[in-house]
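Hi support team,

I'm opening this ticket because the web form for multi-chain structure prediction keeps timing out on my end. I have pasted the exact lines I submitted so you can reproduce it. The total is 783 residues across two entries, so I didn't expect it to be a heavy job. Is there a limit I'm missing, or should I split the entries? Thanks in advance, R.K.
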Amino acid sequence: MNAMTQDQGLRTLSYAEAIREAMAIAMEADPTVILMGEDIGVYGGAFQVTLDLVDRFGPDRVMDTPISELGGAGVAVGAALTGLKPIFEFQFSDFAMLAMEQIVNQAAKLRYMLGGEASVPVVFRLPSGSGTGAAAQHSQSIEAWFGHVPGLKVLQPSTPEDAKGMLLAALADSDPVMIFEHKLLYKMKGHVPEGSYLTPIGKALVRRTGTDVTIVAGSIMLHRALEAAETLAGDGISAEVIDLRSIRPIDHETILASVRRTGRLMVVYEGVKAFGVGAEISAMVAESDAFDFLDAPILRLGAADAPVPYNPDLERASVPQVETILAAARRLSRREI
Amino acid sequence: MPVEVILPKVDMDMTHGTLAVWHVAPGDEVAKGAPLFDIETDKAAMEVESPASGRLHFVTARPGDRIAVGTVVALIFAEGEDVVEVAAPATTLPEPVDAPRVAPPAAGARIAPAAPALASPEADGLLRATPAARAAARRAGVTLADVPGTGPQGRIQRDDVTGHFGGHVGVQTGPAPAAAGPTLWSAQPGPLHISHRKGRGVPLVLLHGLGTDSQSWAPLEKALGPDRPLIRIDLPGHGRSPRRRLRGFAELARMMVEAFDEATRAHDQVHLLGHSLGGALALAITDIRARKIASLSLIAPAGLGPEVDAAALTGIIRASRAESLAPWLRRLTATPEGISDDYARAAMKRRADPGLRAAQADMAEVLFPDGVQPFDLRPALSRLECPTALIWGRSDHILPYRHALAAGGDFAIHLLSGAGHIPQVEIPDRVARIVTRHLAGVSPGG
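Hello R.K., no limit was hit. The queue was backed up. Here is the completed structure from your submission:
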C-alpha cells in the first residue's frame, strides 16, 4: 500500500495478524486477559481477527457472546471491575450504539464516581469505516463520538505495527480504551516487530515531513494522504503528513509544531465532516499560538453529510479519496483558498 | 472618476465644522440626495446629502473630527467603477474637539488607500489578512493597509508582507503613493496590457525592460521566425499598460505575476524571456510559478548585483527631445553609430507623452533609489530548476555582465561580443539563434 509498509527483509504481518499476535502475547503473559464478542470463537470473528485463538486458549478465555451488545459489553465492564482484562470485539463499530450505556455511563465514569477506588481496564475493538459495500448501518466512522467522553481513550491504528503496539498499550492501561480498526486495513501487510512492545497512547507521528502544508489524517486516510503527498511532491508542493493515531487524548504539540512550520492545515478523516475530528483539531489550532502562523484557512475533509450509501460509486464519493485530498491540497498551496 | 464628498459651508461665517455621524458605512451604497453625514457648527446641526449615487470609499473623517470647510472627506464611486485612489485628498485631520460623540461607524472607518489594481482587501470595509501576515506585519512594523494582497479576494498573506522576492521587506520602502508630491500623472485602473502572436507549440512570454515597451521585441520576433506563439506583457506605465503607483519591486513583481497568470491561463507551460528589469521580473515569476515555466531566458537581467548605470536610465526616461535622448540611447549599445538621429526621433515619438515619462521616472526612482538595485534575485536564480540561459553583451554599460559570472546556480551563460545592453535589438539574429537552441533543447518540437 505504501513504501512505509514494505520494508524489505523485515518480518511482515497483516494488520489482522498483528492484532491477533498482540492478543496471543497478552493472553500468554497474563491469565486475566480474556476475549469476548459475537462469533469470535470457532468462527474466528466477522473479520477473522480472532481465528484459531479459541483452539489455543480454550472457550473459557475466548467467549462467544449472545447477539446483545449491551449484554456483552456489560459483562465485559463487570469483568474488568472485578479484576479481569477483557477485550470485547464489536462485530461492527456501528453496533457500539447498542452498548452506549455500558461504554459511556459505566466504563468511562466508574473510576471517577468511585473516587479512584475502582478501575475498568476493558478494551473495546471496533471494526470501522466504509468501502466494503456494507451500507449505512455497517460502514460508519463514529470514533469522534467517543472523543467527546472524558474517561475513555480512543485509538485509531493505521499500520500493522501500531495495531499490535496499541492493543498491548491498551491492555497495559487501567482505563477503558476503544480501538477503531479499519476494515479495509485488515489485509494490509507491514513490518511488525517480534515480542511485546507498546505504542504510546496519545502520540501522533509525522509519517512524512514537508514544508508547504500539514495534512493530519488517521487510519486509512493516512495512506490516502501519503499517496496524495507523493503526487504533490511531483507538483513541487511539499506536504507534511501526520498520523493522528490517537483521537483521545489528542497530541496537540505534534500538530501545532507542524502548523507553525507550514502555515497551512488540512485535516482528513472518514467520519462525517461536521462536528468531527477535524472540528476539534481546527479549533485547537485556532485557539493556540500556532494561530499566528496560519497563512490560509484551515480545511477539513470529511465524509458527506449523509448516511454512507450502498451504491459503490456513491459510497466511494461520500468519503475523502486520494484525488479529493490532492485537489484540496493543491488549492490550499496555490492560494486558491 | 469618483465624486468628491466635501464638508460644505452651511453658515455664512463658517470656517470649520464637526462631523457628527456618518449615515453610510464605507463600502456601502448610497443614493444621490440621501443623508450621508451630519455636521455641527457653533450654531446649528445639519444633515448633508450625498452628491452622487454609488459606493462610499476612502472616508478620511471620523465622527467628532473638526474639519475645514471644503475638505474632501470621502469619495463616491459609481457602480462598476474601479475603486482606486485617483487624486488622494491631502486631508489633514485636526485634533478632534469636544463634540457630541456618536457611535463610531463599524470597523469600516479605517483610513487607508486601496491597493491599486489588485482586488482591494478592504473592498468590504474589512482588511483581509491571514494571521501569519498580521504577525509578520507586527514584527516588521508594517501597516497592513499599505500592503497589496495577492490571495483570494485580495487577502494579504505572509509573503505579501515579508516580500517574497529577494527576501526583504520591500513593499513599504518607497514613498507612500499619496505622498508622491506634485505629479504629471495619475494612477490608472485596469489590467496590464497583454498581446499575443499566434503560432504552434509552447508559447514564449516576453517581458521588456524599463523605459521601453513590447514593440521593442520586433527585431527579435522577426529573427525568431513566424512559427512560435508569443505572449507580450507591457509593464505598468509602459506601452499600453495603465500607469501605477509602485512602492517597490515586490509590488511590481506581484502585478506581473497576476498578469502572467492571466496571459498564460490557457497553457500548461510556457517559455519565459525577460530583458533587464523584465529579466528580474521573469526570475521572480519563475521563482513562484516554477511548474509553469518550461525554460527561462534572461537578457542582461537586473537584480543580480547592486550596480546599475542609473544616469543612463534616468537620462532615457526623462529626455523630452530626440537630441537629449540620442546620447543616452547610444550608451545602450556597443556600436553607438548604429543609433541614428532618425532612430532617436522615432524613439522620442513613442515617448512624447510627458505623463508617461513622469510615471516611468517615478518608477525608476522607486525601483533604483540612489542609483542602486536594492532588490536581489540571486537567491531566486540559485533556486531555479528549469533550464536557464543568461545572455549578456560584453559591452553592456548599464548592467555589468560580471553579475552573471558571480551569481550562483545552474545556468548557461552566453557572452556576446559586439553587443551592449540591448543585444536583442543590436544583434537580433544571434540572440534568436541562442534562444531558439535553448528552447529546442528543452522541449523538442515545442
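A quick check on our side: The longest strand of chain A covers residues 265-272. Let us know if the file doesn't open in your viewer.
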